[in-house]
Amino acid sequence: MTSSLPAVPVIDEDLATRIAARLEFIEERLRDSVATSDDMARWTARHLMDAGGKRVRPMLVLLAAAFGDLEEDTVLDASVLVELTHLASLYHDDVMDSAPTRRGTDSAHALWGNNVAILTGDFLFARASALSARIGPEAVRLHSETFERLCLGQLHETVGPAPQDDPFEHYISVLSDKTASLLALAGELGAVLAKAPAGTGDIMRRYGEKVGVAFQLADDVLDLGSDEETSGKTPGIDLREGVPTMPTLLVRRRAAQEGDARSLEIVARLDGDLSSDAALAELVALLQEDPALEDTRALAQRTADESVQILEELPAGAVRDALIEFTRTLVERRR
To answer: Where are the transmembrane segments (predicted)?
Structure first.
């Protein structure tokens, strides 16, 4: 199995070494957490896990925990809990989006069908719930609230904004629920379970909420600005499924307000037939040259800057510096 361990923010060598060692334990626990005697579930549950991943959420648990006792065993459980929940949501998302690939390999539903992919996601959610019960009642409450937000975020994305809703506010709320909620959980659990100083959990929760939106906005850019070999996903797959992204929302607004030929052409293609790879590639090429892509990148950076301002409430030192570097890598990543 190719290592999926992320790059640890190297601000302080000792801190980086300690976190890297904990990440190794987390990889072992992730594999153990889906162990089962059922042959089918054993293969399907390991599919995306073995494909790799950035392990952003476990990393955030550990960075938050570094303000307290990083060696606390329940911190490892929390790290596995958030990653299992994330993986489960990917199985469901790929069914909703009809995504053919994920992390550079065939998606689960492309290999085994929608029913198996959905049930595999449910299986991972069940294992994550068992972990939260082992950690304690507060973890159960926080995890269940996050699970609810994940479901509502997907629901609201699927249904779309009501006529009276602002589409940009609606989109940011979807990002907050679908992506930021789990990062907020990671930061809060890491700090609380490591017995970090009072108030650290709240700060990390607010940071996670903000940096999660920046992370997803950066993903909107990455979805259009990279190729499948780099990102592990088919470029523009959200366009084919009609899923709104910040660049497309910006283009639609400009088309409605200014009516310029380029914007109107992009909107026509967005609303047209994108079933062929050629049509999708032509639309992606147009969006790659559109100012909306750079505007989205700038918004992601501004939102990341706001998350760093929240970190200023934490004690100065190696851990805060590592979190600032972690924020930078989330927004500037290329995959």
So the answer is: none
Residue listed under structure tokens 């199985």: 91
DSSP letter (8 states) at residue 305:
H
Better-scored residue on pLDDT, 166 or 334: 166
Q: What is the pLDDT of residue 2?
A: 34
What's the CATH number for 13-320+327-332?
1.10.600.10
User: Given CA atoms 187, 193, 196, 200 in this order, what sign does their dihedral have?
Assistant: positive
Distance CA 88, CA 124 (A): 5
Look up residue 121 and give its two tokens: 């996601």
Please give the Cα distance from 243 to 304 (Å, whole number).
Answer: 23
Domain ranges in the chain?
13-320+327-332
Q: Which of 53, 2, 47, 45 is nearest to 232 (CA)?
A: 53
Q: For residues 77 and 135, is the Cβ–Cβ distance under 8 A?
A: yes
pTM, rounded to two decimals: 0.90
**Region 1-18 average pLDDT:** 65
